[in-house]
Protein backbone atom coordinates (compact mmCIF):
# COMPACT_ATOMS: atom_id res chain seq x y z
CA UNK A 1 0.00 0.00 0.00
CA UNK A 2 2.78 2.46 0.87
CA UNK A 3 6.41 2.13 -0.21
CA UNK A 4 9.38 4.44 0.26
CA UNK A 5 12.17 3.88 -2.23
CA UNK A 6 15.60 5.36 -1.51
CA UNK A 7 14.07 8.45 0.17
CA UNK A 8 16.56 11.19 0.89
CA UNK A 9 15.85 14.51 2.55
CA UNK A 10 18.45 17.24 2.76
CA UNK A 11 18.03 20.60 4.46
CA UNK A 12 20.05 23.37 2.83
CA UNK A 13 21.12 26.63 4.45
CA UNK A 14 23.47 28.69 2.32
CA UNK A 15 26.40 26.44 1.41
CA UNK A 16 25.58 23.95 4.16
CA UNK A 17 23.66 20.78 3.28
CA UNK A 18 22.45 18.65 6.19
CA UNK A 19 21.09 15.16 5.41
CA UNK A 20 18.02 14.25 7.49
CA UNK A 21 17.17 10.99 5.72
CA UNK A 22 19.69 8.91 3.78
CA UNK A 23 18.20 6.36 1.44
CA UNK A 24 15.19 5.06 3.39
CA UNK A 25 13.63 1.92 1.89
CA UNK A 26 10.53 0.52 3.59
CA UNK A 27 7.11 -0.86 2.70
CA UNK A 28 3.92 -0.86 4.76
CA UNK A 29 1.04 -3.29 4.20
CA UNK A 30 -2.63 -2.41 4.52
CA UNK A 31 -3.78 -2.35 8.17
CA UNK A 32 -0.21 -2.89 9.40
CA UNK A 33 0.61 -1.33 12.76
CA UNK A 34 4.06 0.25 12.79
CA UNK A 35 6.12 2.10 15.39
CA UNK A 36 8.84 4.52 14.30
CA UNK A 37 11.55 4.50 16.97
CA UNK A 38 14.92 6.17 17.28
CA UNK A 39 16.95 8.78 19.12
CA UNK A 40 16.28 12.49 18.96
CA UNK A 41 17.32 13.98 15.64
CA UNK A 42 17.39 10.72 13.66
CA UNK A 43 14.64 11.79 11.19
CA UNK A 44 11.44 10.26 12.63
CA UNK A 45 9.36 13.42 12.27
CA UNK A 46 10.86 14.17 8.86
CA UNK A 47 9.89 10.69 7.68
CA UNK A 48 6.32 11.05 8.98
CA UNK A 49 5.99 14.52 7.41
CA UNK A 50 7.04 13.11 4.03
CA UNK A 51 4.62 10.20 4.30
CA UNK A 52 1.82 12.60 5.28
CA UNK A 53 2.54 14.96 2.39
CA UNK A 54 3.59 17.81 4.67
CA UNK A 55 7.19 17.90 3.43
CA UNK A 56 8.95 17.08 0.15
CA UNK A 57 11.73 14.59 -0.23
CA UNK A 58 14.98 15.50 -2.00
CA UNK A 59 15.43 12.20 -3.87
CA UNK A 60 13.77 8.82 -4.19
CA UNK A 61 10.09 7.97 -4.51
CA UNK A 62 7.07 7.56 -2.29
CA UNK A 63 4.52 5.17 -3.78
CA UNK A 64 0.96 5.07 -2.42
CA UNK A 65 -1.45 2.41 -3.65
CA UNK A 66 0.82 1.82 -6.66
CA UNK A 67 1.06 5.50 -7.68
CA UNK A 68 4.21 7.54 -7.43
CA UNK A 69 3.76 10.77 -5.49
CA UNK A 70 5.94 12.44 -8.09
CA UNK A 71 2.88 12.35 -10.33
CA UNK A 72 0.03 13.28 -7.98
CA UNK A 73 -1.14 16.27 -5.95
CA UNK A 74 -0.74 16.61 -2.19
CA UNK A 75 -4.51 16.55 -1.83
CA UNK A 76 -4.63 13.02 -3.29
CA UNK A 77 -1.86 11.89 -0.94
CA UNK A 78 -3.65 13.32 2.06
CA UNK A 79 -7.06 12.00 1.09
CA UNK A 80 -5.65 8.53 0.50
CA UNK A 81 -3.44 8.21 3.58
CA UNK A 82 -4.35 10.79 6.19
CA UNK A 83 -7.52 12.60 5.17
CA UNK A 84 -7.76 14.52 8.41
CA UNK A 85 -4.58 16.55 7.82
CA UNK A 86 -4.82 20.23 6.96
CA UNK A 87 -5.59 20.68 3.29
CA UNK A 88 -3.31 22.29 0.77
CA UNK A 89 -4.71 22.34 -2.78
CA UNK A 90 -1.37 23.01 -4.52
CA UNK A 91 0.19 20.23 -6.56
CA UNK A 92 3.71 19.27 -5.57
CA UNK A 93 6.35 16.68 -6.35
Could you describe the 3D structure shown?
The chain is of the alpha+beta class. The protein has a single domain, classed as 3-Layer(aba) Sandwich (Rossmann fold). It has 2 helices and 4 strands. It has a 4-stranded antiparallel beta sheet, with helices on one face. A hairpin with a 2-residue loop joins strand 1 (2-13) and strand 2 (16-28). The two termini are 19 Å apart. Mean pLDDT is 82; it is low at 82-93.
Topology, pairings included?
Layout: E1 2-13, E2 16-28, H1 44-51, E3 59-64, E4 67-68, H2 74-81
Antiparallel strand pairs: 1-2, 1-3, 3-4
Which overall shape is indicated by the principal axes computed on the Cα atoms? globular
Which regions have little confidence, pLDDT < 50, spanning 5+ residues?
82-93
Query: What is the domain total for the residues?
Result: 1
Mean pLDDT: 82
The CATH superfamily label reads P-loop containing nucleotide triphosphate hydrolases
Major beta sheet summary: 4 strands, antiparallel
**For the terminal residues, how far apart are their CA atoms?**
19 Å
